[in-house]
Amino acid sequence: MPPEDFLAQLHLGLARVAFANQQWNEAERRYREIVEQYPKTETAAEALYWAGVVRYKASGDAAALKETAHQFQSRCTSSAWAKKASVWAA
Fold first, then answer.
1. Mean pLDDT value of segment 27-37
2. Which residue segments constitute the domains of the chain, with CATH numbers given?
3. Dist CA 89 CA 8 (whole Å)
4. What is the pLDDT of residues 55-77, one digit of tens each?
């Protein structure tokens, strides 16, 4: 595994721990860092997806999911995660 992909996966694990512990702000921060620091990895698409889920979980506002779907229209467009998020765009 290339170092960049490996590091992104490590950071994803930390974000998942924060998510599992319902530490919404920490989880979102960690997911967003992956998107910013490792944008060319498949993990970035996954992190973008989960960042939207975290925002929704923290606020209960479905607009967070819709915004995430729109973000996928400009990045990670061919990823499986973009397809999963596409249902939120409607």
1. 97
2. 3-88 (1.25.40.10)
3. 26
4. 999 999 999 999 999 999 888 78
**The one-letter amino acid at 76:** C
- DSSP assignment of the chain, as one string? --HHHHHHHHHHHHHHHHHHTT-HHHHHHHHHHHHHH-TTSHHHHHHHHHHHHHHHHHH--THHHHHHHHHHTTSSTTSHHHHHHGGG--
Nearest to 55, CA basis, from 86, 26, 17:
26
Q: Token pair for residue 79?
A: 């990823």
- Tens digit of each residue's pLDDT (9 = 90 or more) over 75-85: 878 889 999 99
Q: Which residue has tokens 């960690």?
A: 30
